[in-house]
Structures are given as structure tokens and as C-alpha cells.
Amino acid sequence: MLTNNDTKTRIAVLEQKSITQERLIEKVEDAIQVMKDVVENVSKMLAVHDERIEQASKSDSIIISMLKEMKHDLDAEDIDLSARIDEISIKVEEIKKIKWMTIGIGVFGAVLVGAMSTVASGWLTPGELGYRMEPRYVPNPENIKK
Question: What is the pTM of this model?
Fold first, then answer.
């Protein structure tokens, strides 16, 4: 049978095991508590990230709707701009025509004035009047007696 020493040893071993088990249980409980804190922090971070993602998606949808409005407005303005550009092009073409017509009239007028001046010079200058200019005698200063 068991002796008193064996019993004491067994009790000491069992006490040692129970102390070790208590320490392990405390460590496991501490680890569980730390894991709970980590899970809480992660869930808070996820909540914050979910909120940010939700805000980002809202802002994205607002930006997309604004871009669609701007595209619609630009399309409407583009039609107006196209019409205005066409009107301006027509006016520019008319101004070009007027410019070239003015240049043509100016050239024609210059040619006409040149021809008229040639014809008029024949009418306005005296023809042969029947007299002749004779050269005038200018004496040499050496031949003049004083």
C-alpha cells in the first residue's frame, strides 16, 4: 500500500498540477480577453471602414449624377454652339464675298481710271497748233562787249 511519503508526494504533485493548470487557465483566460479586445477593435475598424465605403459610394454616385447632368447640359449647349458656329461661318463667307467684290471693283476702277487718263490726255493736250518753237539765241558772255 501507499506510504505516507508516497501520499505526500502524490498530493504535492497533484497540487503542483493544479497550480500549473490554474496558471494555464489564467493564461488562457487572459488570451481570450486579449482576443475579445482584438475582435472588438477589428469590429470597430470594420464599422468605420464600412461607413467610409458607404460615404465614398454616396459621393461617387453624387459625382456620377453631376457628370451626367454636365454631359446633358454640354450636349444641349453643343447643339446651340453648333448652330452659332454655323451662323458665324455663313457670316464669314458673306464678308469674304464682300471683300473680294470690293477688291474687284477697286481693280476695275483703277484700270478704268488708267484707260480714261490715257484717252483724256489725248483730248486735253493740244495737238499741232501750227506754230513751231524756235530755239532762242543766248549769247556767250565772252562775246558780249562792254
Answer: 0.37
